[in-house]
Amino acid sequence: MTDVALKSTPLEDRHVALGGRMVPFAGYNMPVQYEGVMAEHKWTRAEAGLFDVSHMGQARLSGADAVHTLEALTPTDFAALKPGKQKYSLLLNEAGGILDDWMVSRPEEDGFFLVVNAACKDQDFAIIADSLKGDTTFDILADRALLALQGPRAREVMAQVCPAACEMYFMDCGTFEILGETAFVSRSGYTGEDGFEISFPAARAAELWDLLLTFPQVKPIGLGARDSLRLEAGMPLYGHEMDETYGVVESGLSFGMSKSRLERGDIRGIERIRAERENPQRTRVALRVLEGPPARDGAKILNAEGEAIGIVTSGVPSPTLGYSIAMGYVPATQSAPGTQLKLEVRGKPYACEVVTIPFVPNSYHRKPKA
Amino acid sequence: MKFTKEHEWVKDQGDGTAFVGITAYAADALGDVVFVEVPEAGKTLTKGDAFAVVESVKAASDVYAPVDGEVIEGNGELGNAPETVNAVPEAGGWFAKIKLTNPSQLDALMDREAYEAYLATL
After folding, report:
1. Taking CB atoms and an 8 Å limit, are A294 and B60 in contact across chains?
2. Which of B92, B89, B83, B99 has the alpha carbon at shortest distance from B7?
3. Nearest to residue A14, comparing CAs of A204, A141, A225?
4. Do A37 and B58 touch (CB under 8 A)?
5. Engineered SS bond to A105: which of A86, A228, A291, B76, CB 3.0-4.6 Å?
6. What is the pLDDT of residue A19?
């Protein structure tokens, strides 16, 4: 193995001081856990968990043509994204394969704020830089940290730190002042819980981290629990549930695609999108393991006759549910909830069942229906 | 009790049999154990081969045979109570009882003092 110098987030010394077990992740030295994945997972579901996700890429696109730049690369209608709103989107290649998934905010009329996966950011930013339309300006925000505060008590804490942000609903975003600095905050996250993501100047990120940890409701949470939390919420992880070989529809990510764009047909790889809609082959499913060990990434999915029909892309013993869960791909004909399948782990088949996504119901702070 | 660098232990019962398991250090490093797969009686173990699996929320880890042997009994209790591995890793959290088929291999393993000195280097 080649030794490559790991990059650090602005909070690395905090993780080490808190006893975080540090591991390489997407080229960064990151905490996989502090007191333990199980305890951190349960804490986030009951209280509030604080995550350092500063390894993720952040960028800003401005100018009247920023909408066109984004729309050329994604299946999302960004002209329709209202200021103060956030949208899940996908970076597609020319053939409609998924290069990354993004969270795109529009804090103000002029200007989009992007959060992209750490492992994909160099690729993504190179593609964007090569695809700028008209007057679009593109800035990579390498000088900002990203903190996520997630859980049923996240709001109480934010009410003390940034009260105005608590007026937002799920998938709202805005620009606020915290500790005298400009913070881009969204009411969203990667756990299925109510919560906030806070983009903050790297130079003062440790102060914000320390401030949030002064609240008794808040504990630091590592990447281990981040993964088990997102899996229970049925959320995909790039490199597992999707990559360039998967399309928008089969991966169950059509919610990142706008109906208007589909009707206009001006999406990269539109032929693939139409084919997956009209003649579905494989599709992403949620599986409840009914017996035996957890099935993890790479485990074969078998039909009742024991023939391999698919593959697990993520799996975990669910701390909330007390049984193992997994996501993976199977033929669309065998994807209906209730379908009895098998999972092969260490050469032996174990019963599982297709269930609905999410495994654990989400608890977002949604805007009440009028 | 003797120990390996892979954090397994062997407890020689003095009658040609021994218990094997993972050390407190290994159990702590794994975190909460949620599933254990122990070997069935009759299985032949060769030193260094994976003979059991222990799973935490995060990952599945192989457990390697510290010595040659033949499994007399796997610890079936761990199926219902995998958390025993965290609670008492070097006692009730044993993985298998084995017949030692090459007892001289025990001499090459570390005693507790040597194992603790080894842990200090990690």
Report:
1. yes
2. B89
3. A204
4. yes
5. A86
6. 96
B57 touching A, CB under 8 A?
yes
Quick check: B32 and A316 CB within 8 A?
no
Among candidate residues A339, A352, A335, A344, the one with its CA nearest the CA of residue A298: A344
Is the preceding omega at residue A24 within 30 degrees of 0, hence cis?
no
- What's the CA gap between A137 and A95, in Å, rounded? 26
* Residue B96 CA: distances (Å) to CA of A278, B30, B83, B109, B111: 54, 19, 16, 18, 20
Question: Rounded to a whole number, what is the distance in angstroms from the first to the last CA of chain A?
Answer: 58
**If you measure CA to CA, which chain A residue comes closest to B83?**
A38
Predicted TM-score (pTM) above 0.90:
yes
Q: Is B23 helix (H, G, I), strand (E, B) or coil?
A: coil
pLDDT score, position A145: 98
CA distance A27 to A203: 21
For chain B, say whether A290 makes contact (Cβ under 8 Å).
no
What is the spatial distance between Cα A203 and Cα A9, in angstroms, rounded to a whole number? 11
How far apart are the C-alpha atoms of A234 and A255, rounded to whole Å?
13
CATH number for the domain whose boundaries are B2-105: 2.40.50.100
Q: What own/partner pairs with CB < 8 Å and gap ≥ 24 does B44-50 have?
A: B44/B69, B44/B70, B44/B71, B45/B69, B45/B70, B45/B71, B45/B98, B47/B102, B47/B105
- CA angle centred on B23, ends B17 and B25, rounded to 5°: 170
Cα separation, A128 vs A304, whole angstroms = 46
Low-confidence ranges of chain B (pLDDT < 50): none
- Strand A324-331 vs strand A282-289: parallel, antiparallel, or unpaired? antiparallel
Weakly modelled stretches of chain A, pLDDT under 50: 1
pLDDT for the residue A95: 97
Using CB atoms within 10 Å of the CB of residue B63, give its burial: 0 to 12 exposed, 13 to 18 middle, 19+ buried: buried
